[in-house]
From TrEMBL:
PANTHER family: CELL SHAPE-DETERMINING PROTEIN MREB (PTHR42749:SF1). This is Cell shape-determining protein MreB. It comes from Zongyangia hominis. It is found in: Cytoplasm. CDD domains: ASKHA_NBD_MreB-like. It comes from the Bacteria.
Length: 338
């Protein structure tokens, strides 16, 4: 690869490595598979994800950051090193790396992540806060004294912020996002149909018929699982209305978090946001009707960014162009020197 500046979105669901000139050079699930007895790593990323729910007892498939915090340090470290090696392992020049870590992780955990990147060969590591990266990646101009609002709905966390003058003015982060919706679908299928389904099936149901706002179609999906009463395989058809009801509570929490951010934002900036609208990023923003619901409940026009899944990663790769500005004495730049 030509560029020696790379951006990494260390997401709870997906890790994306992005180069400004080349786009996404790696996109793999945040999953590691290890042998239980020896703790030897057998697969990382895509290969490990395929083993989820299907691995024999001797293997443990770990999602080291599933709740938006680092639950398994060493697996996180292995994963970062593996992905960095995969992308620039053969290169003699050491890259500068700009990293976006889940917003709920602590300073100590961030430090561990930075150290992993350094030991994987990074020359210099910068950390950037998720809403700043999302805004840059969505093409928003955050350098002016003009408020912009970002709602980043990822897998583990939803990060909401109002930005102005290169910094975050108001922010709120909740541990409710796309993966929580999957959990609710699994619970619903169990409680109402006595049907046990796995995570991958739940995710498929969510993307095919899930919605945050009533749909105008009759969408249905065929669901396969194991009946808890008979212990036998079963398939049933489920319509969107059922899933809409099952995921309503976590969606309401996301809407409530957005309302809270607006309530805490200085009035002049609320005026800007009202005029500019809010921008949705992250994979979870693709849930059918989430933009419509947010617009209705906040009275601020919500629009989904272009290619929302890559916004944070693209933003991390763009941050190198903003280092001067972001370091230039503005409060809360979101970027810290290692
Ligand atoms: N079309 C879709 N409809 C609904 N949800 C979707 C769609 N595509 C992806 N998702 C969901 O988006 C989430 C992943 O989003 P993303 O890759 O932005 O998260 P992440 O960066 O890994 O997580 P975080 O920001 O919490 O660290 C998953 O829950 C996934 O199921």
């Amino acid at each position: 690869m030509s560029s020696m500046d790379i951006g990494i979105d260390l997401g709870t669901t997906t890790v994306i490595i992005y180069c400004k000139d080349e786009g996404a050079v790696l996109s793999e699930p945040s999953v590691v598979a290890v042998k239980r007895k020896t703790e030897e790593v057998v697969a990382v990323g895509e290969e490990a994800y395929k083993m989820l729910g299907k691995a024999p007892d001797r293997l443990e498939v770990i999602k080291p950051m599933s709740d938006g915090v680092i639950s398994d340090y060493s697996a996180t470290e292995v994963m970062i090193k593996f992905f960095l090696q995969k992308v620039f392992g053969g290169s003699i020049l050491k890259p500068r790396v700009c990293l976006c870590v889940p917003s709920q992780i602590t300073g100590v955990e961030s430090r561990a992540v930075v150290d992993s990147a350094v030991s994987a060969g990074a020359r210099k590591v910068y950390l950037i806060e998720e809403p700043v990266a999302a805004a840059l990646g969505a093409g928003l101009d955050i350098t002016h004294p003009n408020g912009t609002m970002i709602v980043d709905v990822g897998g583990g966390t939803t990060d909401i912020a109002v930005l102005s003058l290169n910094g975050i003015v108001t922010k709120h982060s909740i541990k409710v996002a796309g993966n929580k919706l999957d959990d609710m679908i699994i619970k619903h299928m169990k409680d109402f149909h006595s049907l046990l389904i796995g995570e991958q099936t739940a995710r498929q149901i969510k993307t095919e018929v899930g919605c945050a706002y009533p749909r105008e179609d009759d969408k249905e999906v065929l669901v396969r699982g194991r009946n808890l009463l008979t212990g036998l395989p079963q398939q049933i058809t489920v319509g969107w209305k059922e899933i809409y009801g099952a995921i309503k509570d976590p969606i309401d929490e996301i809407v409530h978090a957005a309302q809270q951010v607006i309530e805490r934002t200085p009035p002049e900036l609320v005026g800007d946001v009202f005029e500019n609208g809010m921008v949705l990023t992250g994979g979870g923003s693709l849930l059918h009707g989430l933009d419509t619901l947010l617009t209705e409940k906040t009275r601020i026009q919500a629009r989904i960014a272009d290619d929302p899944i890559h916004c944070v990663a693209r933003g991390t790769s763009m941050a190198f162009d903003y280092l001067d500005k972001l370091y230039d004495g503005f409060v809360d730049t979101g970027i810290k020197m290692k």
